[in-house]
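Reminder: ligand-aware prediction takes two inputs, not one.
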Amino acid sequence: MVELVVQKYGGTSLQTTGRMAEAADRIIKETKRGSQVIVVVSAMGRTTDDLTTLAGQVSSCPPAREMDLLLSTGEQVSCALMAMALKAGGVEAEALTGPQAGIITDFSYGDAVIKEVDPEPVRSRLKEGKVVIVSGFQGCPGGHEVATLGRGGSDTTAAVLAGALKADRCEIFTDVDGVYTADPGTITGARKYEQLDYESLSALAELGASVVHPRAAAAAEAWQIPLVVRSSLTEQTGTTILPGTWSPCSFPVIGVTSETGLSSFSLHEGADRREIGREWKNGLCPWKAVQHVKNRLYRIVVRNEEAPHTKSLLSRFGGRPDTGRALVHVIFRSKEEKQKAGSFMRDLPYTQDCFMVETQPHVWSMDVPERHRVNICQALHDRCMEKEAAPISAAH
Ligand code: ASP
Ligand code: MG
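Here is what comes back for the chain with magnesium ion:
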């Protein structure tokens, strides 16, 4: 049986034409094994940031449609170059933009959701024996339009294409060699998962572990596509996410993650939570976390972009914003495991100006000053790993 493999290469894996040539070699090797290959590419290096800066130089408020037209070019550059590199290496390849590849999205420019994939454009080229290179992070909302999927959206393109074309696996090539219990770049002692289940990957992705986009994790789960997260710089096997697998480590904590770019609001005494909730729903401005402490003081955490809107929404409750905040999360396997662990996070250093907040039932979260984020994550992760030495229970 010929295997169908989707390989996605992120920005760091395509930073230079040299890196691109290395990725091309890897793709060629996969074809020599007899596989059919679909390649999804991100923009080279920091291209998306650079294009955003350019837009900011001509407009303080760039129109969403033209912004997407601009940003989608980053992936198209990678895509065209990759097809050229493969052809130069003697492999038949064809480059497609997201719309050309049959990726249909909704009209939410800048954060579009993939609604449907027409598998034909990719399938017909595979049948011709070609490697198909698809520009990640984009699709067609209708007509001849192009919309982007939000930052990090190329992962989603890869997982959704893998699902729609019933691929045997989807490999995400990035700059880390797998999924870890914490960010291995900043946290000493972070441990790599050899295998992981979809639910745990989604929990990590949704709460700031930037290794895979949360929508990609959800798509892989929906289609039950085996997902492999690995480094393009090494031959390490990475982390495999498979239906029905479980990590050999039956530790109650999945990982320690954090989210940055947040603002927090403290609301004065007497603010009625239900009333705030109503205000919130009407304003369509979801909070990321909320704290309800004894003295009826509320703490509400939102993304920086939502801070001005939130401020006007909460003005009658006396909300004032506190910027430069981050959320740190300890993600447990279940609500029960979180309860069992009880107060093991007490007595941490850096508790000044930190607030325990509610996010999800199986997650222990704290609203902290951004500048202490890494130290606090480290302390929490150390604490969790101490516990692992004496496992609390064999979950799952
Ligand atoms: N180039 C886009 C970004 O930087 C999409 C991606 O890399 O997945 O966010
Ligand atoms: Mg990414």
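The first helix runs from residue 17 to 32. The mean pLDDT is 89. We will return to this case in the review session.
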